[in-house]
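User: tokens in, sequence out, please.
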């Protein structure tokens, strides 16, 4: 990436002028716990000459959805980041699962290349990361080598740390603050590795995990005043991951919140979906009630994250770094709650799981701008950060820097990414330590340590040593597919297809695979297979191929235009649902993001424990891809609870 080497000089000139002038207006510091004790921070040698390069703060939420409306309750993120920066509306996660996605962000590789396939051994997790040596080259290492003071605060990679080395600080980080206990998912009563020292936190309000992690980031910002080096802070929250325990000050908020009752929620007719979805019975009212309570808890837990953003922006103003710091906000994956009859979780290729926010503000980033129709993803984060910092990018990196796009410079659509790889794997879904965490919010003991698998996920009994050096193989693949600016194509293993026109059918109700020409589907399958085997720069070249010639654009069907059934609100609670922009129109929308605080209607039902459900036979014995469009007739909508 030759441009990465010439950007720093330009940035240095611009930032020198910025720093010579007036800094951003100071604003009062946000309320929150006191800054943590920093006596354990190791002394760091400073370079002989100050580096005039931009600072970077990357805030990563855990399981934050975009499609279900959780961003609606984060006004500080909207006002301080989105309204003052640029939002990427076509940002996707290749495999929406915590550890694989976070590994992709740290290294700029697709999952099939870094080989961290799941959250826990033997297919993934920290136990597999160590023998593969992946920590030796991450974005933290690259930026530290480029002269940055690097700070990590928060959730790292699932399975960290190993019981045999609980105080390990991974390479590439000048400061390190990360929990060593699974109990951190419950927000209280956990221990942290703070620069090689073990520090315990209890159950006091000020011990809430989001506030503590934000306090470490704030302290790092204040130390930057006397440090001539630029800083990179990676702040990774646990919210809104289950069990989604909110800070005590937020536990009574959103009493009327419930999962949006769109037509995708408890989808009426799944006869055109893959067999694994056809097996799922309609949702029981008790399951819906449980998901409503989880949705409310998720919204509550995000309030501390929203306050954290305001707190850090206030400190940036106070310390004079508001104008020379990039602030990025995103999530490791999305989340589904009842869509297509799926219980709470992730890992699928549906929009709820793969579509996440990406917002950036900072030097030369246009304010109030939204970019649509140009595909970006989690594989792009590391090379983008590297170019911002002027750091060298290893040859194994498969993502692309987004800096030109983010700055609003002209983009040749024909040369941009035409398809983003979707991949999914099974196996390894078990607690890293076998210590369940109770959820006082949901009333379910042992819920939420690692997001529970959907009932079609598999397991693997082999040890980490047996597969540490093994590349992905067909026995563990669940799906491979493509997200284009308009369509989603997914090949479910072993031989089922899904194809959605996301412009005409944003809720992905109608699988069109059975009605498309076999040659067109074969072309997409071959393209996905090539991407699934790509390495390094070849991935970028394959992504930028011209799209295969599509058939006549499918027309919306009656089910595509369905409104929520009788008994559901026409306006989903705390959510807005709009069709994605037409990619044939202008690729960049400059309007400010719409208001994101609709009034929630109704109230959530009384909680009951979910029933144990038996598998039911699929609606149709024939695979979805083998039925003709004429033979596939959608049943009328039934009333929703």
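Assistant: Sequence out:
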């Amino acid at each position: 990436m030759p441009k990465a080497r010439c950007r720093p000089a330009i940035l240095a000139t611009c930032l020198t002028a910025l720093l010579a002038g007036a800094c951003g207006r100071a604003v009062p510091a946000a309320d929150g716990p006191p800054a943590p004790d920093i006596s354990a921070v190791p002394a760091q040698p400073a370079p002989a000459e100050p580096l005039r390069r931009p600072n970077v703060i990357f805030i990563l939420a855990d399981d934050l959805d975009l499609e279900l409306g959780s961003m609606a309750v984060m006004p500080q993120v909207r006002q301080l980041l989105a309204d003052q920066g640029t939002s990427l509306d076509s940002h996707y996660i290749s495999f929406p699962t915590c550890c694989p996605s976070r590994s992709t962000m740290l290294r700029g590789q697709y999952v099939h290349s870094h080989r961290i396939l799941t959250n826990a051994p033997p297919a993934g997790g920290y136990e597999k990361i160590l023998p593969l040596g992946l920590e030796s080259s991450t974005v933290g290492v690259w930026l530290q080598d480029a002269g940055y003071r690097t700070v990590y605060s928060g959730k790292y990679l699932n399975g960290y740390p190993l019981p045999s080395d609980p105080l390990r600080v991974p390479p590439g980080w000048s400061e390190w603050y990360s929990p060593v206990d699974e109990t951190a998912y419950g927000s209280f009563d956990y221990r942290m590795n703070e620069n090689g020292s073990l520090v315990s936190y209890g159950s006091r309000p000020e011990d809430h995990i989001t506030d503590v992690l934000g306090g470490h980031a704030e302290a790092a910002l204040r130390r930057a005043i006397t440090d001539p080096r630029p800083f990179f802070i990676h702040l990774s929250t646990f919210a809104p991951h289950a069990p989604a325990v909110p800070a005590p000050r937020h536990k009574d908020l959103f009493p009327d919140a419930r999962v949006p009752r769109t037509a995708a929620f408890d989808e009426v007719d799944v006869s055109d979906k893959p067999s694994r979805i056809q097996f799922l019975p309609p949702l029981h009212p008790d399951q819906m009630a449980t998901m409503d309570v989880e949705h409310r808890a998720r919204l509550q837990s995000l309030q501390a994250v929203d306050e954290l953003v305001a707190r850090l922006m206030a400190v940036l103003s106070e310390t004079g770094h508001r104008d020379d710091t990039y602030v990025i906000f995103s999530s490791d994956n999305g989340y589904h709650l009842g869509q297509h009859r799926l219980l709470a979780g992730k890992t699928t290729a549906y929009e709820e799981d793969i579509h996440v926010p990406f917002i950036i503000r900072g030097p030369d980033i246009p304010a109030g701008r939204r970019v649509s129709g140009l595909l970006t993803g989690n594989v792009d984060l590391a090379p983008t950060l590297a170019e911002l910092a002027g750091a060298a990018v290893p040859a194994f990196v498969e993502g692309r820097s987004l800096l030109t796009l983010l700055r609003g410079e002209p983009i040749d659509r024909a040369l941009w990414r035409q398809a983003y790889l979707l991949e999914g794997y099974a196996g390894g879904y078990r607690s890293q330590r076998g210590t369940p965490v109770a959820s006082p919010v949901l009333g379910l003991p042992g819920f939420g340590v690692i997001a529970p698998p959907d009932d079609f996920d598999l397991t693997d009994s082999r040890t980490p040593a047996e597969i540490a050096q093994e590349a992905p193989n067909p026995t563990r693949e669940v799906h491979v597919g493509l997200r284009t600016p308009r369509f989603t194509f997914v090949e479910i293993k072993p031989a089922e297809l899904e194809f959605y026109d996301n412009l005409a059918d944003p809720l992905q109700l109608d699988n069109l695979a059975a009605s498309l020409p076999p040659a067109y589907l074969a072309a997409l399958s071959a393209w996905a297979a090539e991407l699934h085997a790509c390495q390094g720069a070849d991935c970028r070249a394959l992504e930028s191929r011209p799209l295969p010639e599509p058939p006549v654009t499918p027309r919306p069907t009656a089910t595509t235009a369905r409104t929520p059934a009788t008994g559901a609100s026409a306006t989903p609670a705390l959510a807005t649902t709009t069709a994605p922009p037409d990619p044939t129109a202008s690729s960049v929308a400059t309007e400010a993001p719409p208001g994101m605080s609709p009034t929630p209607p109704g109230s959530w039902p009384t909680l009951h424990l979910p029933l144990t459900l038996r598998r039911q036979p699929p609606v149709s014995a024939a695979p979805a891809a083998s039925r003709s469009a004429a033979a596939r007739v959608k049943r009328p909508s039934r009333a929703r609870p």
